[in-house]
Amino acid sequence: MPDLLTLEGVHTRIAQYHILHGVDFSVPAGGVTVLLGRNGAGKTTTMRTIMGLWRAAQGRVMFDGEDISKLDTPAIARRGIGYVPENMGIFTDLTVKENLVLAAANGPLDSARVDWVTGLFPPMKTFWNLPAGNLSGGQKQMLSVSRAIIEPRRLILIDEPTKGLAPAIIQAMITALRELKKTQTTILLVEQNFAMAKALGDTVAVMDDGRIVHRGAMAELAGDAALQEKLMGLSLETHQ
């Protein structure tokens, strides 16, 4: 498949800190690309740079052939890019419904789309009229993903959706993202749970110290413990 998103020599500085040092990788259209790396490697900074929350100091972020690196975040979102941040980004004082209404930037909620999303995440229907602050941690993460997909998006950036979640919730998230993948929505996923990364990923990029140190097929990395040790200093099969 052609590449939908490409980062070319991206550098990001935050105050006096130089976080990204020439990041280069691509995200093929219609698949799931997993961004792996140790804590502090620059994964979240990469996601925030793509969304324009932090501005690239150098290099280009190309989306469908257009350089979006100088656009502001609302303009990037209007290109059809959704973002699920690590901190979830939900409004706890608003109901589940109100959270989704705010996320549906193009107009009223589409009933068919709501039915599809609540089919993926049944607790959203159960707690539809309750404040989002009443949800459990896993349910809040479901709401965060629901907000990103309540309207069709061409690309979804998802930052560590299973962090701190119970195994049953993780499995529900895998199932939901597989269904999202079937709609030809492209996904860039930061994920520490290798079982999830392996289950969903088509391609993978590995970061270390603000640089991409490996790019390739997810299946290749998943099947090569020696390569995992070389890139990240651990066997991912034992690091679930």
Detail the topology: elements first, then pairings.
Layout: E1 3-14, E2 17-28, E3 32-37, H1 43-50, E4 56-63, E5 66-67, H2 73-78, E6 81-84, H3 96-103, H4 111-120, H5 122-126, H6 137-149, E7 155-159, H7 167-182, E8 186-190, H8 194-200, E9 203-208, E10 211-217, H9 218-222, H10 225-232
Parallel strand pairs: 3-8, 3-9, 6-7, 7-8
Antiparallel strand pairs: 1-2, 1-4, 4-5, 9-10
Notes on the protein architecture:
The protein has 240 residues and is of the alpha/beta class. The protein has a single domain, classed as Rossmann fold. Helix content is 36%, strand content 28%. The protein has 10 helices and 10 strands. A 6-stranded mixed beta sheet has the order 6-7-8-3-9-10, sandwiched between helices. The chain has a 4-stranded antiparallel beta sheet with strand order 2-1-4-5, with helices on one face. A hairpin with a 2-residue loop joins strand 9 and strand 10. The longest helix has 16 residues. The model has no long low-confidence stretch (mean pLDDT 93). Pfam families: ABC_tran. InterPro entries: AAA+_ATPase, ABC_transporter-like_ATP-bd, ABC_transporter-like_CS, BCAA_Transport_ATP-bd_LivF, P-loop_NTPase. This is High-affinity branched-chain amino acid transport ATP-binding protein LivF.
Question: What keywords describe this structure?
Answer:
240 residues; Rossmann fold; 4-stranded antiparallel beta sheet; 28% strand; globular
